[in-house]
Amino acid sequence: MTVDEEIVVNKSGDEAQNASSQPKLDNQKFLLKERFEIDFSRPLVWLDNNGGKAFAVSDRIDTTRRLFALICCGETPPRLSILPYLKSIENSALMKLVEYGIVTYSPDNAQKMALIYEEPLGGKVFDAGICSLSLKEAPEKFRTLALSFMGVIDAFKNMNITHRAIRTDNLYFRDVGKSEIVIGDCAAAFPAFFQPPAFEAIESLYADKVARGNGSDKSDIYSAAVTLTCMVLGHDILQNVSAPEVLRQKIKKGSLALINSIEKIPATFSNALRGMMNDTPSLRWNYSQLFSFFEGKQVSYGPTSATERPKRALNINGEKVYMPHDVVYMLHSNIDEAYSLILNGKISDWAKNGLENEALAAKIDVIVRQEKSAAGNKNLTVARIACLIDPILPIKFKDMAFFPDGIAKATFMALKEKKNLKPFVEIFDSDLIKLWYQEQESLRSPGNITEFRVYIMRQEIGYGIERIIYDFDNDLPCVSPLFNGEIVIGAPQVLRALNNAFKKENISLPPYDRTIIAFLRCKIGKKIDSLISDLNSPREENHVAAILHLYAMLQNKFGPAELPNLARWLVNFSKPLVRIYHNKKYQRYLEKELLKSNSGKLYEIVELLENESALEKDRTDYAAVLNEANYLSLEKNRIENGGPKLDEEARASALKLVSVLSILAMTASFAYNLISWVLK
Amino acid sequence: MKSKNTKETDKSAQFGRSFRKLNVFQKALLIVFFILICIISFPIVLILIFGLLPTLTILFVDKKNYDKQLIVGCFNIAGVFFYLFGLLNKFSIGQQNDIADNIFMVILMLGSAALGLVLYNELPNFYAYVYKLLSARKIDKINAKLEKLKEDWGDEIVPHVPSAE
Fold first, then answer.
1. Fewer CB near the last or first residue (10 Å), C or N of chain B?
2. HSE (side-chain half, CA atoms, 13 Å) at A44
3. Are A593 and A577 in contact (CB under 8 A)?
4. Rounded to whole angstroms, how far apart are CA atoms A203 and A206?
5. Where are the domains of chain A?
6. Which residues pair with A321 in a beta bridge?
7. In this structure, which long-range contacts are made by residues A7-11, counting pairs with CB atoms below 8 Å and at least 24 apart in sequence?
8. What is the 8-class DSSP label of residue A316?
9. At A56, which helix (H) or strand (E)?
């Protein structure tokens, strides 16, 4: 996502925030963008999806339009970065996103993201796991539907985004006549977070739910294929089977074979589904291949697992495994044994003789040599070897399995749920993610990936794990505890959220924390690096000055024009900056002026506190006063400590005086008597 | 003071050396001349010996205290002058008896020496007392100024002051 596009997101969010500040119609209604009236008293439970709650919406301009709002109040934040693209997509097989914005969700009076969709009039395609439409007898309908799904996936692909929520309970009939099917929301939760195990390909299923990442169009094609399979079969599949079991069986049998083993897919459909459901992502059919197939052209399915199967097996935990993903699965399931196999060189032998891949064997040997020369990390070594053996699979480290583009979300959730962040720190401090990207054929690693280690090493404000999260993922909102639960999706919302938080209660904490600064650094860029340096200085007044400048800059750039509560918060927080002036009278004057400045304009506070001429005068006066105080104290010391000596001096002076007096008396007497004698 | 004493001692020693350099005749002539003077001005010498008794006493008793000698001596001489000049007008052998008999004159001569002694003893104490009072007032003023500075510029202004030690 480009910066300009991000600004679009920010602006949208900003507008939404403006809307949120408008007076509510009543406790049960909220007006979004002065047009869409969300009625919280009219829930549409059947449209609840991806953790979100659906409510009826009336459009004030086009009153005939049937809309509903999906309030994102699930476990995970919405996918903010795809919202502008989603809004722009016009596809008959996709539920239309009309608008989005932040609303005050009345049931818990919290700020939530609302997605306004066109309401599907024909209800859900699947009801309680049973499909209300039979495709078994309608191959033509199957073909139309498959191509329309592929069309949606292609539309997403063209915008470099993915849907990741194609499943049976996310299909709706657009019209009352139930002739058109639309795919529902995909933005209310993390990608593939609510996908049942049956609908996810092996590689995605292997990753933790929060860390599946955005994936690629191949992931969506797989989900669409399973959805179509369910529609052909008339019901959901593998509903009551746990995710690890589905994964195990998919690895063991292959996806299509697994479904066929449960219920035979009619031959009319199985060939198309086989192409779409290929367990090797690169071999999954795309739109043109599927279209060619429906046109009767020959389309390759790629090599089958039987022809691909290596000649030699690897024996792990008493089980013979042949295929790379089987090996990786077994390595991760038996870490200790896997580690000894790696060190013994058996994995390298298997790569050389079994897979007949000399390059892979050489790479494994390099890791083994490194491991032998230095006391290594068992989990890390197994994870690195697994990345080399099957790069399609996600990285598995300790208890976590993640795709690199999902690691930020996983870290975010761990941070939110106050989980142990040590494994994440270990991951970012290692070369695992870099190694994974190096092994990908069609993926390029993000430019900032080399910065991870730097960020992790630096524990200062604006760095650390928070910086990685927001630098690596544009979906994530800022979740500082200072926001009091308010959703902040961009830099413009930060000040409003802080303003509202201080309005609710007087907070004694500083008006910033690591999360906010890391978030702002990622959204604003290098411009605030100098301010971050000040925030990490040991001097408290530098922190205050940096925050005042940062927030004043944000207010000037994004508004709003008045932030009275935040201004009060900053005034309370500004005392160290007031104390840089030495003159107490001036300090008292500043405190009075700060209390008076209730306009909510942050730059006024900055101007008041950072008056250059006043500061210079204070410095000069202080230097003069310091000299005077030094002189006075020295004088005082001299008088106090020189007691006997001064007494002696006083006596000596007195004696001199008396001596002079005596001589004068003698002279006067002589003169008087001489004059008297002469006159007589 | 020490150097002054040394100077005085040097002078007397010089006088002693000069006196010793004279021959016997010269010495005898000088002594005869001195005795002659004493005889001629006997009333004056007598008044001086009587009137300057306090000073002579101090000269013998407190040989090293030159200040005391100077102050008492000067006041004593000031008192003696009144009668010494009176003696010049009616200079005779019996005049000294009249003066010595005049108790008022004796009080004046000895009283002036007493005044010198009182001043010598008490003025330095009084002076030191006044000086202490002035110092205390000066410290009060400095304290007030420092308090004002502290009030205006904060307490940290005082720790900056280096100790007098």
1. C
2. 22
3. no
4. 5
5. 3-118, 126-307, 316-472, 484-610, 642-680
6. A314
7. A8/A84, A9/A80, A9/A81, A9/A83, A9/A84, A9/A474, A9/A489, A9/A490, A10/A489, A10/A490, A10/A491, A10/A492, A10/A523, A10/A558, A11/A492
8. E
9. strand A53-59
Six-digit token string for A253:
């049998």
Give B159's pLDDT tier (boundaries 50, 70, 90). low
For A496: left if phi > 0, alpha if psi spans -120 to 50, otherwise beta; the answer is: alpha
Q: CA geometry: angle at A52 spanning A48 and A57, to 5°? A: 70
Name, in order, each residue with C-beta under 8 angstroms of A161's C-beta and a sequence gap of 6 or more: A82, A85, A86, A214
- Report whether the peptide linkage leading into residue A560 is cis, meaning its omega lies within 30 degrees of zero: yes
Provide the β-strand partners of residue A103: A112
**CB contact, 8 Å: A584 with chain B?**
yes
- Chain segment A53-76, per-residue pLDDT in tens: 999 999 999 989 999 999 988 788
User: Residue A495's closest CA among A77, A21, A82?
Assistant: A21
CA–CA separation, A46 vs A18, rounded Å?
30
Alpha carbon distance A40, A69 (integer Å):
9
Angle between helices A464-472 and A514-524 (to 10 degrees): 40
Taking CB atoms and an 8 Å cutoff, what residues of chain B touch A634? 161-162, 164
pLDDT computed for residue B165 by the predictor: 39
Q: Are A576 and A540 in contact (CB under 8 A)?
A: yes
In one-letter notation, the amino acid at residue A443 is L
**Interface predicted TM-score (ipTM) over 0.85:** no
**Which residue of chain A is at minimal alpha-carbon distance from B158?**
A629
Cβ contacts of A572 within 8 Å, gap of 6 or more: none
**A3-118 fold:** Phosphorylase Kinase; domain 1 (3.30.200)
Cβ-proximal residues to B64 (8 Å cutoff; 6+ apart), any chain: B5
pLDDT tens for each residue of A16-41: 444 444 444 566 888 998 899 999 98
User: b or e along A658-676 (b: 16 or more beta carbons within 10 Å of the residue's beta carbon)?
Assistant: bbebbbebbeebbeebeee
pLDDT one-digit tens code per residue, B87-103: 776 655 555 556 556 78
Using a CB–CB cutoff of 8 Å, tell me whether A666 touches chain B.
yes
Residue A273's φ and ψ, nearest 5 degrees, are -65, -35
Name the residue facing B74 among A630, A662, A674 (closest C-beta). Answer: A662
Judging contacts by C-beta atoms under 8 Å, the chain B residues touching residue A677 are 85, 88-89
Best to test chain B binding among A621, A635, A655, A660 (most B CBs inside 10 Å): A655
**What is the token pair recorded at A437?**
């990207």
Do B152 and A584 lie within an 8 Å CB cutoff?
yes
Count of beta carbons in the 10 Å neighbourhood of residue A201: 26
Which residues are bridge partners to A488 per DSSP? A478
Yes or no, beta carbons of B124 and A673 under 8 Å apart = no
Contact A217, A154 (CB under 8 A): yes
pLDDT in tens, A264-312: 888 888 888 999 998 888 889 989 999 999 888 888 877 655 556 777 8
Find how far residue A506's CA is from the centre of its chain: 27
Over the Cα atoms of chain A, what is R_g? 38
Tell me, yes or no, if A628 comes closer than 8 A to chain B by beta carbon.
yes
In angstroms, rounded to a whole number, what is the distance separating the alpha carbons of residues A69 and A680?
135
The CATH number assigned to the domain with range A126-307 reads 1.10.510.10
Nearest CA in chain A to B83: A673
Sign of CA dihedral A609, A613, A614, A618: positive
In angstroms, the CA A198 to CA A494 distance is 40
Kindly state the DSSP code that residue A353 receives in the 8-state scheme: I
